[in-house]
Design a protein that fits this description.
214 residues; 72% helix; mainly alpha; 2 strands; hydrogen ion transport; 9% strand; Helix Hairpins
């Protein structure tokens, strides 16, 4: 429910309120447009996130099955020794990008640029290992960039959801409180000024009548 603001019913206040109302209405439109665009991008990201999560979970499941099969035919200590030393260097660079005034992560994942033969990339030989272990490690190697992309999207979704909620509160504050209160106050002041003007005209007419009688 709109409430009139506690201001003096003067023409100066009326002018100031009209200017403030104009700013509030323009700000409301800009924020509403921002909210709509944030929601559109958020929905697109959610769809991308769901699809990527399905792909990652399927690939990780396959890798885990192969790793379990490999472990069942190999000594646990031997398996741990095989995967203890990384065979390839990788770097992760995390930057930020601006999406509708929201600072979201932009991850850049890079493997080492050294040209190595396929067998040299492994920290073990093929002789004492199973094909399931090779397949499992290959899948994990391929799925890592997708995992990082998934974490980037999920963090972006979280930040955008916070911004959407913040923008929604500001839109509602303008739409349901500030703008109606200003409109109600402007209406009140205009009515009050009209009443004062009619009262002033009435007094002037009475003074004129009194002068004519004399």
């Amino acid at each position: 429910m709109a409430n009139a603001l506690n201001v003096k019913p003067t023409r100066m206040e009326l002018s100031n309120l009209k200017d403030s109302l104009d700013v509030a209405e323009r700000g409301h439109k800009l924020l509403k447009d921002k909210q709509d665009e944030l929601m559109r991008q958020f929905i697109d990201l959610i769809k991308e996130n769901n699809q990527l999560r399905i792909e990652v979970e399927e690939e990780l499941s396959d890798a885990l099955q192969n790793f379990v099969l490999a472990s069942s035919t190999m000594n646990d200590a031997f398996v741990e020794e095989l995967v203890a030393i990384p065979s390839q260097e990788a770097s992760l660079q995390i930057r930020e990008k601006n999406v509708m005034s929201v600072r979201v992560p932009d991850m850049q994942f890079h493997y080492s640029e050294e040209k190595e033969a396929e067998e040299e990339k492994l920290s073990y030989g093929y002789l004492n290992t199973s094909s399931e272990l090779d397949e499992s490690l290959d899948v994990l190697n391929e799925v890592l960039p997708k995992l990082l992309k998934l974490s980037e999207i999920e963090k972006t979704c979280q930040l955008m959801a916070d911004e959407i909620e913040s923008t929604r509160r500001r839109v509602n504050a303008l739409e349901y409180r500030m703008i109606p209160d200003h409109q109600e106050t402007i209406k009140y002041i205009e009515m009050k000024l009209e009443e004062d003007e009619r009262a002033s005209i009435t007094r002037m007419m009475k003074v004129k009548d009194m002068g004519d009688d004399n």
